[in-house]
Amino acid sequence: MLNRMRKDAVDCPVKGKTIAFIECFLCENFIRRARGIIECRGNPLS
Question: Is 15 helix (H, G, I), strand (E, B) or coil?
Fold first, then answer.
């Protein structure tokens, strides 16, 4: 499952670019991912 998450890419609303899902998952703004839609707090990264 982790191997599949590493290969997946998502559009990051905070950074404004495409990143690996594992990077998004470890972000402090990440809330959840449901059916391919990322829910993010959208706060600036420190």
Answer: coil
